[in-house]
Structures are given as structure tokens and as C-alpha cells.
């Protein structure tokens, strides 16, 4: 039996290319959390548990994830069969509630290790690919309308992105909608414009804001209301023709079931960490697809490892109607992979090769790591 021999958690602070202004935080750097799982055959699997804005976005912080893994999760896993990720994760969930990001990273690392050992890609371990290129959005979030338009133009000229997500919810509804309308006008006919409110609107603000955004030609409204306001999301999805997407509210299959049964979203943003792992994220997608809810591949602005893992999973979905937003590595000034992921023709390429198909550059990782 090949055993799980060692588990290491590393936090690396990587600067962003510009301030990334979200409703709940302004990011000047990203705290990339990587887990390295060494197997008794010498193979090292890697997984990522990166979140956004410390504790501003989700319930798990980078430091808390590292502590939970080192103190509680790793001791439970050592000595177990490294070739049986599903059994190992089921055992772990019997002892650890929550901690979805940490569990996702461990599951990713186990699948990466197994894929490397067997010489097959992670997407094949998950059933095989439907596609190898995923249309990829970029978030225009410099905080300034003019700068966002320039950035959008540059992305279009480079043929890197023609789907743009605008982050709103920090300013008044009128100001935010004027900002979006100006960008939508400037890029009209050349790009899909979407907004993410990150839970910052009340129901009344959402009714007002969505009516304005619909007039401005916006295609999709992401998580306008608080994650726990499922009834409000159902009300908005029924009231407006424009697509309403659930993001923060989707914390695994049970939440997906609730949203699907109440008709509380037109689109699901599937995220591997928020769902609690690749298998749980696949279940979220399956529930969505069964309820005729369209799918979108979400990100927690991970570096190359979590981005590759997400890409492998999204490649297996029967349909990915709204594309994905796996641009995390492009938001950071430094690459921590030996070979960066490839972006061209408005898409990200799902890596080939065994397991995740990416290799961490350990010198660079050490350089940015908090623990030298
Ligand atoms: C979110 O809420 O979707 C994804 C892209 C981005 O700019 O922020 C994230 C988080
Ligand atoms: Mg979102």
C-alpha cells in the first residue's frame, strides 16, 4: 500500500498587478495557500486552499487553514492509503466538520498524487474531458471607470478576454450602475459584460440596480443578495429576464439542492474550494444541470495549482454555458509554476500531463513563502 507520509502547508504572499477592488476588500496581494502531500512512493501531490481578503470573503483564513491542516487534518491522514482519495476524504469528513477549503486542497493533492502515479490527467480521473479550452473572463476592478475601459480594450486587443466581470456593491447603486453603463457602452458589441455584487445589496437596492443594469445591456448579475437570502434570490430570478447567478451561497451539494428546488438562480458559479472539494463541486454542477440551471466555472483567485485543478473539473462538465473566470495567476505579478498555464484566443487551456499537469517552482514558492 502506498501511504500518505507527510503533509506540509505553505502560505506565499504574491503581489497583484494592480489593486483589485472588491466590495468587501481591496487586494494588493494574494495569500496563496498550498498543501504538499508526500506519498511513500516519493510522489508529491499538491493542492491549493487560497481564499480572498483574509476573513473578508469566506469563513476560512489562510492562517486558519494552515493551522487546521497542521494541527487536526494531517495527523488524521498520515499512514492512510494514498491511492484511495475518496475513502480518505470520507474518513476525514467523519472527524472534521466544515473546513471546506482545507479539505478541497487535500483532496486535490491526493488526486494529483494518484494521477501522477498512474500517469493520467486529473480530468481523466474525474471521468474524462468534454473540452480542453475554457472561455475565460477577466475582472475589471481597478476602482476607476477610465482605467477599467483601457484595461478591457487591451484585453480585447490581445485576444485574451472578451468576457468582463465588474465588481460593484461598494458605492451607491446609482454610482455603481453609472460606472457599469459607461464600460458597457465603451465595449458594446465586443464583449459580454457581467457584474458581481458580492452580497452587498438589499432586496430593494437589487430591484432598482438590476432594472438599471438590464437597460445598460449587462448579461449576468452575480450574488446580489446575502448568501442566506435564498427566497430573495428566487424573487429576483423570477422578476427579471436577466440571468441571476449564485456564488457565495453555494457551499456544497446541499445548498445547490436548496437553490435548485426553489428556483433561486439561473446560473451556478461552481467553485471547488467553496464546495469543499472537486467531487462536491461536481455534485453542485450535477444538481444545477439536473434543474436546468446553467453552469459557470468560478475562482477564489487561486494561483496556478487551484486554477489547474478547477480547469480539470470544469473540462468534464457536460455543458459550461457561461465559461469560467480562471484568471487568478494573471492577476499576480509572479508565477509559482515552472511553466505557466496557457491563455490564448479568449480561453484557458486545460493542462495535459499526469495529475494536475503543472509543477510548482519550489525556489519561487520559498521566495514568497512566509516561512523561510
Ligand atoms: C467572486 O466573488 O467571484 C472572482 C473573480 C474576482 O475578481 O473575484 C472573485 C470572487
Ligand atoms: Mg462572485
Structural commentary:
With 372 residues, the chain is α/β, with parallel strands linked by helices. The protein folds into two domains: 4-119, Enolase-like, domain 1; 125-349, TIM Barrel. 40% of the residues lie in helices and 20% in strands. The chain has helices at 62-77, 85-95, 100-118, 122-125, 145-157, 173-186, 203-215, 230-239, 253-262, 272-275, 278-290, 304-314, 328-331, 362-368, and strands spanning 4-21, 26-39, 44-48, 133-135, 138-140, 163-167, 192-196, 220-222, 243-246, 267-270, 294-297, 343-344, 347-349. Helix 9 (253-262) links the parallel strand 9 and strand 10 (267-270). The chain is globular, with a radius of gyration of 20 Å. The two termini are 33 Å apart. Residues 196, 198, 222-223, 247 line the site of magnesium ion (MG). Residues 22, 52, 139, 141, 196, 198, 247, 298-299, 301, 325 line the site of [(2S)-5-oxo-2,5-dihydrofuran-2-yl]acetic acid (MUC).
Amino acid at each position: 500500500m502506498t501511504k500518505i507520509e507527510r503533509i506540509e502547508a505553505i502560505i506565499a504572499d504574491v503581489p497583484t498587478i494592480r489593486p483589485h477592488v472588491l466590495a468587501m476588500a481591496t487586494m494588493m496581494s494574494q495569500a496563496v495557500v498550498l498543501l504538499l502531500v508526500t506519498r511513500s512512493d516519493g510522489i508529491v501531490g499538491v493542492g491549493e486552499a487560497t481564499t480572498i481578503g483574509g476573513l473578508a470573503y469566506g469563513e476560512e483564513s489562510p492562517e486558519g487553514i494552515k493551522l487546521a491542516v497542521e494541527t487536526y487534518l494531517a495527523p488524521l491522514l498520515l499512514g492512510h492509503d494514498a491511492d484511495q482519495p475518496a475513502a480518505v476524504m470520507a474518513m476525514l469528513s467523519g472527524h472534521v466538520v466544515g473546513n471546506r477549503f482545507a479539505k478541497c486542497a487535500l483532496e486535490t493533492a491526493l488526486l494529483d498524487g494518484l494521477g501522477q502515479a498512474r500517469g493520467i490527467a486529473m480530468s481523466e480521473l474525474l471521468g474524462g474531458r468534454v473540452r480542453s479550452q475554457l472561455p475565460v473572463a477577466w475582472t475589471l476592478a481597478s476602482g476607476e471607470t477610465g482605467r477599467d475601459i483601457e484595461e478591457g480594450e487591451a484585453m480585447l486587443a490581445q485576444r485574451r478576454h472578451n468576457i468582463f466581470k465588474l465588481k460593484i456593491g461598494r458605492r451607491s447603486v446609482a454610482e455603481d450602475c453609472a460606472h457599469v453603463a459607461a464600460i458597457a457602452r465603451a465595449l458594446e458589441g465586443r464583449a459580454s459584460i457581467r457584474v458581481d455584487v458580492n452580497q452587498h445589496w438589499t432586496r430593494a437596492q437589487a430591484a432598482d440596480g438590476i432594472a438599471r443594469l438590464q437597460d445598460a445591456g449587462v448579461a449576468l448579475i452575480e450574488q446580489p443578495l446575502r448568501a442566506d437570502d435564498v427566497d430573495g434570490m428566487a424573487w429576483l430570478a423570477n422578476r427579471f429576464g436577466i440571468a441571476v447567478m449564485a456564488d457565495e451561497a453555494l457551499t456544497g451539494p446541499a445548498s445547490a439542492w436548496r437553490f435548485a428546488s426553489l428556483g433561486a438562480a439561473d446560473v451556478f458559479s461552481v467553485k471547488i474550494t467553496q464546495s469543499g472539494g472537486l467531487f462536491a463541486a461536481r455534485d453542485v454542477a450535477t444538481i444545477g444541470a439536473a434543474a436546468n440551471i446553467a453552469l459557470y466555472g468560478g475562482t477564489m483567485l487561486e494561483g496556478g495549482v487551484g486554477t489547474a485543478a478547477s480547469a480539470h473539473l470544469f473540462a468534464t462538465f457536460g455543458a459550461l454555458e457561461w465559461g469560467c473566470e480562471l484568471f487568478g495567476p494573471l492577476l499576480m505579478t509572479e508565477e509559482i509554476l515552472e511553466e505557466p498555464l496557457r491563455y490564448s484566443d479568449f480561453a484557458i487551456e486545460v493542462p495535459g500531463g499526469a495529475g494536475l499537469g503543472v509543477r510548482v517552482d519550489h525556489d519561487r514558492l520559498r521566495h514568497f513563502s512566509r516561512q523561510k
